[in-house]
Each structure stands twice: as structure tokens, then as C-alpha cells.
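C-alpha cells incoming
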């Protein structure tokens, strides 16, 4: 009897300590042998041998056996106590669930039908006003309801109060002091003006709100006229204000629209060359036109004072040369010398016209070159990336169009400048040639000669 009792205790103790003993024995064996067993059968046989050795030790040591049994009983009692606590918690939760179900059933089906509609409208309101200007230093959005509880009278009243508060705020204009991100990215407190739910302005700029967690930021592109109107309205000097009726789409388009400098950079290297050549041609044209205007002023002064010849104008130089050559020369020689003097003055009057005309003709051709290179880049992008993303093709298309525009814009002023230079130089040449021819005719008429000879002189002068 005593032996059977000991055997039963031994088996109970072995069942309780077997997993820990197996793990400890396996660890010790691997530490002693330094390698894993060769097969599963050998590992199982080794574990059996270790279990037998452990059981033998426990049988020999009655105190160790008694302590193991007591430890096993304590763990069993603790597990039973924890089980009773979990069962009590389960029963409590079940009772609460039954009470909630009974309450829901007692309140009737009307509130059950109202709850999803109410929560749907609350969600839509929070989504619609998540980035609204009304939530900045304004009424708080209604909280989302509990999924298990039915809406009570207090919640319905709070939702109605929130809707009325937001409705009042949509018709108010308020001055607030909020942290605002400027164009350069710095966030500093600024005085802003909130126009209901329509817009918010500060420092003559529209403000945008990209996220509920980020402060409002100044819009980079605000037209000058709109900025002046907004600034005057914010100062109280005007009752007019510029708003975006599209709900932010127009402001987004304005912020993404490139300015004149950005358009110029879209032309690329070809655009830079076109503009540089156009600037060079305009400088040459302006310099030559200034010279021609100076010559015109000196020529008018020479015409007013015909007695004294000046060498600061072409007419004075031509007439002076004719006067020095009139003694001892036949009329044909005088005419040849006059033509020589006139031809010597023409290069100065027509200087730069050929280059301006050449640049005016080259500019559209360079624009066409930029168009071709831009379209080549566009087709290369289509070949590599396909047509799914239009932004990948925008660069080549922009270059193709901008270079054409730059070429035409450059050619038109150059053509006008060339026309002005040619007209002014022809007028000066005509005045100089007419005055010199008249001087030569007067000289020939004063020469003593026979009538036929004089008539030939008159015919040559008229020719």
C-alpha cells in the first residue's frame, strides 16, 4: 500500500515536472556533448534515460518528492482561482450585454433606425469640415458615436447645437491671430481675417490649408490686383473682396501657373540663345538709331546755316569736298567726285542694318529648332514611360511651344527696328544727295560756257 502510494505520487510529480526536466536535460546534454543527436530515436532514448534517472532521484529523495508535489498543488490551485475569476468576468460581461440588448429592445426600433443615419451624417460632416476654415479657432466638430450604444437626447441636442454654431460662423468675418506659414516656409503668428467658410486672407494674400494637422500657409501666386483688394479690405478701407467661387480649384491653378521668368526658363538652351541674339540685335538697333537721330539733328542745323560748312555731319563733309574740287574740273569729274563723297558717307548711315535683318531672320529658325528638339524629347518620354503620366511629356511640349513664341517675339521687334533704321538712313541719304546735287547744279550754272554746252550741263545736273 505504501509502495503504491509512493508510485502514484511519483507519477504525478513526473507528469508535472516532465516538460521542465526534458528542457533542462536536453540543454545539459547538448552542453556536454556539444552537438545534436544523430537521429530522433536516439534523442527519444536519451530523454527516456534522463527521465528514469530523474524519477530514481525523486524516489530516493522523499523530501524532494514532497516539495515537488506541493509545488504542483499550488500551481493547480492558482490555475483554478484564475479560471474562477475569468468565469466571473465572462458572466459579468454577458450580463451587461443582455442588459444592453434589453435596453435596446425596450427603446424600440425607431432609435435603431435613427442611429446609422445620424452616424452617417456625423461622419460626412467631419469629412466635409476637416479642412474648413471654421475649425480654426471655432466650434469643435461633433464626436463620432459609440458603435454599441444608441443615441440619446443629449447627443442629438449636442449635434444640433454644433450645426447651429457652424451655421452662424459661416456668416461671420473675424480677425484671428494664428500661426501661418509664409512663402519661405517660416511659421510665425500673424493676424488673419477669416471670411466665414469661404476664405482666409493675411498680408494681402490668400491662405490655403492642406491638412488639419498643419497651419495655414500663404498662397505663392496671388495676382497683384487681387492682393491690393484683399489688403484694402483687411485694413477696412474697402468693402470689396476677391473670392474663389470654385472652392479652391482656382487658387490651386493660380499657384501652379508659371510666371514670365518661369516661362522663359522652360525654353531651355535654345530659348536662351534666341533671347540673347534678340537682345544683341536690339542693342545694335538702338545704338544705330541714336546715331542717326544725332546725325539728323546736325543735318538740320547745317541746313539752317548753309553759309558755314561743318564737318560733324555728312552734308557738311560732302559740300566741303565738292567746294575744294570745283576749280579746274570738268562737270563729269565733279559729278564723279560727288558720287564718291556720297558713297563714302553711306556705310556710316547704314551701319548695323544687315546684322539686325539677319538676326530677325534667324530668330524664328532657332524657335523652330527648339520646337523640333522639344518634340523629340516628348516622343522619347513616351517611348520610355508611355502616355500614362502627362507630366512626363509636359517639359518637352513646353520647350517646343515656348521656343517658338520666343523666336517670334524676338523677330517682330527686330524687323520693326530694321524698318526704322532703313527709313531713317534713306531719308538722310536723300537729303544729303539732293542738297549736294543742288549745290553742283548752281556751280555748273555759274560757269561761263556756250549755250549748247550749258544745256548739256543742265541735263547732266538733272540726271
Amino acid at each position: 500500500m505504501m509502495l503504491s502510494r509512493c508510485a502514484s505520487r511519483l507519477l504525478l510529480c513526473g507528469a508535472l515536472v516532465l516538460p521542465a526536466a526534458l528542457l533542462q536535460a536536453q540543454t545539459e546534454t547538448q552542453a556536454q556533448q556539444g552537438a545534436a543527436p544523430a537521429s530522433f530515436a536516439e534523442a527519444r532514448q536519451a530523454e527516456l534515460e534522463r527521465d528514469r534517472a530523474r524519477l530514481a532521484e525523486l524516489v530516493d529523495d522523499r523530501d524532494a518528492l514532497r516539495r515537488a508535489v506541493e509545488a504542483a498543488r499550488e500551481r493547480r490551485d492558482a490555475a483554478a482561482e484564475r479560471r474562477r475569476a475569468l468565469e466571473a468576468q465572462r458572466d459579468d460581461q454577458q450580463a451587461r450585454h443582455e442588459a444592453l440588448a434589453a435596453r435596446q429592445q425596450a427603446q424600440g426600433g425607431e432609435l435603431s433606425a435613427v442611429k446609422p443615419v445620424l452616424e452617417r451624417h456625423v461622419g460626412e460632416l467631419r469629412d466635409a469640415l476637416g479642412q474648413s476654415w471654421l475649425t480654426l479657432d471655432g466650434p469643435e466638430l461633433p464626436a463620432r458615436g459609440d458603435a454599441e450604444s444608441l443615441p440619446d437626447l443629449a447627443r442629438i441636442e449636442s449635434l444640433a447645437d454644433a450645426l447651429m454654431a457652424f451655421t452662424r460662423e459661416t456668416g461671420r468675418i473675424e480677425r484671428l491671430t494664428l500661426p501661418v506659414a509664409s512663402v519661405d516656409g517660416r511659421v510665425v503668428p500673424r493676424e488673419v481675417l477669416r471670411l466665414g467658410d469661404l476664405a482666409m486672407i493675411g498680408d494681402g494674400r490668400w491662405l490655403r490649408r492642406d491638412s488639419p494637422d498643419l497651419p495655414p500657409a500663404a498662397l505663392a501666386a496671388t495676382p497683384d490686383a487681387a492682393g491690393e483688394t484683399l489688403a484694402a479690405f483687411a485694413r477696412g478701407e474697402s468693402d470689396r473682396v476677391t473670392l474663389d467661387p470654385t472652392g479652391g480649384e482656382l487658387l490651386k491653378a493660380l499657384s501652379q501657373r508659371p510666371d514670365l521668368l518661369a516661362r522663359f526658363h522652360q525654353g531651355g538652351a535654345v530659348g536662351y540663345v534666341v533671347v540673347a541674339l534678340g537682345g544683341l540685335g536690339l542693342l545694335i538697333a538702338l545704338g544705330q538709331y541714336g546715331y542717326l537721330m544725332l546725325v539728323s539733328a546736325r543735318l538740320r542745323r547745317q541746313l539752317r546755316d548753309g553759309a558755314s560748312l561743318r564737318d560733324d555731319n555728312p552734308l557738311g563733309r560732302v559740300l566741303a569736298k565738292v567746294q575744294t574740287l570745283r576749280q579746274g574740273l570738268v562737270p563729269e569729274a565733279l559729278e564723279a567726285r560727288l558720287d564718291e563723297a556720297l558713297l563714302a558717307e553711306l556705310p556710316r548711315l547704314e551701319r548695323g542694318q544687315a546684322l539686325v535683318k539677319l538676326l530677325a531672320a534667324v530668330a524664328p529658325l532657332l524657335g523652330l529648332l527648339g520646337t523640333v528638339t522639344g518634340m523629340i524629347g516628348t516622343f522619347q518620354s513616351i517611348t520610355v514611360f508611355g502616355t500614362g503620366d502627362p507630366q512626363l511629356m509636359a517639359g518637352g511640349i513646353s520647350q517646343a511651344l515656348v521656343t517658338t513664341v520666343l523666336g517670334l517675339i524676338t523677330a517682330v521687334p527686330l524687323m520693326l527696328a530694321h524698318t526704322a533704321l532703313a527709313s531713317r538712313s534713306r531719308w538722310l541719304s536723300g537729303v544729303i544727295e539732293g542738297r549736294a546735287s543742288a549745290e553742283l547744279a548752281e556751280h555748273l550754272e555759274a560757269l561761263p560756257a556756250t549755250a549748247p554746252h550749258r544745256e548739256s550741263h543742265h541735263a547732266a545736273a538733272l540726271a
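note: The chain has a mean pLDDT of 75.
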